[in-house]
Amino acid sequence: MKLPEAIHFIGIGGAGMAPMAELLLARGVKVSGSDLAFNEKCRHLEEGGAVIRKGHASENVPDDTGMIVFSSAVTEDNPERIRGRELNIPEMRRGEFLALFLSLYRRVAAVSGSHGKSSITAMLVHILLECGFQPGYMIGAAVPGGKSSDGGLGDDIFVTEADESDATHKLLSPYLGIVPNVDGDHAWSVGGDEALKENFRIFARRSEKVLCFDTEKELFSGMKNLLMFPFPSENETFACHCGFMALNARLAVESAVQLGCDRQKAIEAVSSYKGISRRMTLRRNDEKLIVIEDYAHHPKEVERAIDFLRIKYPDCHLRIVFQPHRYARLEKFFDDFVRVLRGADSLFTVPVFAAWTESGKVDSAMLAGECGGIFISGVWQENAEKVLVPPEDGRKLLIAVLGAGDIEEIIPYL
């Protein structure tokens, strides 16, 4: 496949878009793009030579653009997509372009599932690098002290996440498909729960090998390409990791073995994995307070986060600060959110991070009310002052900041 000489990204600051743009810059492609918010990823890409504009406007599209790649959140009436059609520029969703890009590599390891994609991808990349491989990769999160993407050396291995939220994972044909779990998250955007499951079955059928736990046995029933492992006890530790991180580590090690790593060396390698941003990230730990940040935004993820923190910090008062992500998700899983958030010792909720829709039938205040928690709104600094009130039980306070939106902005004030 020959890449276009110039590619324009609409929504270039996104977690999946920015690493792709960086890979293309490294290959000598002229990259331009736009985003409603000019974030740190945009600044980093500009330093690498990309031309990026804040906001969406037809004039953002350079005349020499050979292809437009857009986020699934970008609608057809976006002025840059309209301009692209006027200029007869081919356009692709990010996941469609990813499938095209991956054809440059012989062995693709694609991680697709409802939870844990970024962590498993990062763990697998870490193992491969530690074991002497030089894979290409793309991780949908920042890697402290490292890179989120790299073209690798040669055209053998590429490790990537495969997004199920827009069904583009079913366009891939990986050497190794890795599916840690399948829940109903994003079902509303692909046609319902059954459509979501069928998309995963298509992804599995298009994979040469599929790696999963036996919890997905029924979903993938009858497939001959399965490499299935017993789902371990969540109280077990693995290579120094505990809780759901131990599950992620197990899959990462088994994946590395399939790609040619020695098993024992892979286990030793994953023991030195330091994590990625917003995935159980320790942001403060002193005699007064512990602050953990995590991307958990689905009830299963919140539940696993609470279990993990109870294991790791058993003597602390666990206070959750939670930002629901999307009204559709909050409505679909409202009762489940109530059930799992009651597992915290105290709870604060902040307004929903809307992401596509600005209102819904339920909101954060209703969630706090059902859980016996406190709803707070306003500027982050004032919210932090309320969250930092010491617990009445006298235990050391552990604040877990959970959510996939802009809840991270409260962290500096904690």
Spans where pLDDT lies below 50 across 5 or more residues: none
Query: How many strands appear in the DSSP assignment?
Result: 20
β content, as a range?
A: 15-25%
Overall form:
globular
Instruction: Decide which structural class fits the backbone.
Output: alpha/beta
Radius of gyration: 21 Å
Mean pLDDT: 93
State the end-to-end CA separation.
49 Å
**Proportion of helical residues:** 25-40%
Q: How many DSSP helices?
A: 13
- Largest sheet strand order: 8-7-9-6-10-11-12
Structure write-up:
Helix content is 32%, strand content 20%. By secondary structure, the chain is α/β, with parallel strands linked by helices. The chain is globular and about 65 Å long.
Which properties best describe this structure?
13 helices, 20 strands, 414 residues, 32% helix, globular, six-stranded mixed beta sheet, alpha/beta, single chain
In short:
The protein contains 13 helices and 20 strands. It has 414 residues and is α/β, with parallel strands linked by helices. The longest helix is centred in the middle third of the chain and has 16 residues, at 243-258.
